Amino acid sequence: MAKTASTKQGGRHDPAASDRRRQARAAQQAALARAKRRRALTQVAIIGGVAVVVIAIIATAVLVGRRGDSTAAGGSGGGPSFSGTTSIGGGGGSQVPLAIGGSQAANGVRVGSTDAKVTMDLWVDYSCPHCQEFEATNNAAISDLVASGKLAVTYHNIQIVTDYGTEAGSASACVAVHDPSIWPTFNASLYANHSAQTDGWSASQFASFATSSGAGDATRSCITDGTYRDWIGDNTAASVKAGVTGTPTMFINGEKTDTLSGQALTDRVNSLASA
Amino acid sequence: MPDAEARAALVDPEVEEQTADDPAPSSGRGVGVLMVVAGTLGLVAAMVLTIDRFRLLEDPNTQLACNLSPFIACGPVMESRAGALFGFPNPLLGIIGFSVVLTAGVLRASGVTLPRFFHRGLQVGVLLAAVFITWLQTQSLYVIGALCLWCMLVWAVTIPLAVAVTLDNAAHGRLGAGLERLGTRLRPYTVTVVAVWYLVVLTAIGLRFYREFALFWFGVAL
User: Fold this and answer.
1) C-alpha closest to that of A178 among A224, A215, A208
2) Domain boundaries, chain B
3) Do B37 and B106 form a contact (C-beta atoms < 8 A)?
4) Cα separation of B196 and A133, whole Å?
5) Whether the Cβ atoms of residue A243 and residue A123 lie closer than 8 Å to each other
6) CA distance A219 to chain B (A)
């Protein structure tokens, strides 16, 4: 090992060879620096170019999307707007007012007496498992409270989990507008119906489902056309402003609360109603 | 001075092969450092996601800090079917995978020469990881409709990891002679490849969520 090193050392002491080596090295380093600069420029150019394309694509989408929106708003007046009555609660049920959209029920479907002492806003998504659970547990109790006139509920259907939320939400709005009498039952069955098998349902499948639940032709074509899909998107956007960060989110008399369930829910409504 | 260079040449035979096209044939240390950083960040993200999953199981109504808005939320993503593709929460895979990346990265960064089969195994790992996160991206954007910040951190570290490991392996001829030339050509452009990949993902996110972002960040309804 030591011998090899000394031999090498000897070789390097030859002045001419050392000069040549230095020159070669300097030339090589200059070439390296040039190549490095060239490469850096190429990289910046590629990344910059792609970034510009990306910005252009998104800007186009924003502009095109905006134009699409304004025509939709001109054609159908934005979202649904309707008020009527529906039947809710056990034992034949009682007739209560139902409103969707407009000033009475912005971004939602309002069910219940207009002078109910307690109002509840539920921000829900037909595709959210917790909402399905909540609905299964509390539908009967909420319906009875609404039927008694103490409570009015506004269901804000939004979409945050899967596309089922949008399609079912649009179907639900169609039923509220065209067949309000079956809306409470249909609302519950949209939750009960959600499973891995139905998650990818198309608008026409929802239309058939509504027909078999007793909806008429107007509802059918409304669902097939996906009439209120955009409205569900608008509601979802509105949920951000309302401070919703997940579903289900409950507001009672305008105040955000923990999502009450079961007896706690009934007790709270009763105590507020008798206060 | 010449002594030091001669030693360097003995330690790293590739120094002799330097050409203008390939100025820094890596000893693998750069990739090693990247693996340490990516492995650490990925491990943190996987741990947080796993712990949050436990918290959600203990109390389904718990408010997770990562649920910022209906669109930027980890809850719906974690509870989706895609969040547990193999029947258990995905982040468990991350805890295993990123631990290996971190450990191997520490070895490479400290100059340990790892056997060829290890590099090939790592290659299989990062490719599977890249395929998996790409599928998760499509699920998050087009099926679940929500972005989960910790999941996005995993995407953000997996992309450079996959690119750097693949190009480095290719350039070293560990993926066959056919890919060696291509790898040598492309390796100096690792940063570009990563940046373009990032931009593609950002475009998809932008196209899917620009309305929500406009509303959430700027209060503008588009």
Assistant:
1) A215
2) 26-218
3) no
4) 43
5) no
6) 26
Most A CBs within 10 Å, among B68, B69, B139, B147, to test the A interface:
B69
A39/B70 touch (CB, cutoff 8 Å), yes or no: no
Q: Which of A61, A129, A233 sits opposite B207 (nearest CB)?
A: A61
C-beta atoms of A65 and B222 within 8 A: yes
Which amino acid is located at A93 in the chain? G
* The listed CATH number (3.30.470.10, 3.40.190.10, 1.20.1440.130, 2.170.150.40) that belongs to domain B26-218: 1.20.1440.130
Of all residues in chain B, the one with the smallest CA distance to A38 is B21
- pLDDT tens digits, A114-164: 889 999 999 999 998 889 999 999 999 999 999 999 999 999 999 888 889
- pLDDT < 70 stretches in chain A: 1-13, 66-78, 91-92
Q: What is the mean pLDDT of residues B139-156?
A: 91
Tell which CATH architecture fits domain A82-274: 3-Layer(aba) Sandwich (3.40)
The ranges assigned to domains in chain A are: 2-75, 82-274
CA angle B78, A230, A252 (to 5 degrees): 65
- Residue holding tokens 């109002």? A119
A237 → closest Cβ in B60, B63, B215: B215
Sheet with A82-88: strands ordered across:
A82-88, A94-101, A105-111, A151-157, A118-124, A249-252, A255-257
The Cα B49–Cα B62 span in angstroms is 14
Q: How many CB atoms sit inside 10 A of residue A116's CB?
A: 22
Q: Are B203 and A58 in contact (CB under 8 A)?
A: yes
A9 touches chain B (CB under 8 A): yes
Residue A127's SS3 state is coil
The answer, for A264 touching chain B at a CB cutoff of 8 Å, is: no
User: Which residue stretches of chain A are H helix?
Assistant: 2-12, 15-76, 129-147, 163-178, 183-192, 203-212, 217-224, 229-241, 262-274
**Segment (H or E) for B171:** helix B149-171
Q: Do A174 and A210 form a contact (C-beta atoms < 8 A)?
A: yes
Closest chain B residue by Cα to residue A234: B221
User: What's the pTM?
Assistant: 0.65
Q: How far apart are CA A163 and CA A167, in angstroms?
A: 6
Residue B2 has pLDDT above 80, yes or no: no
Distance CA B80, CA B72 (A): 14
Distance CA B135, CA B83 (A): 11
Distance from CA of B203 to the nearest CA of A (A): 6
Phi-psi region of A38 (alpha: psi -120 to 50; beta: other; left: phi over 0): alpha
The yes-or-no verdict on residue B148 having pLDDT over 80 is yes
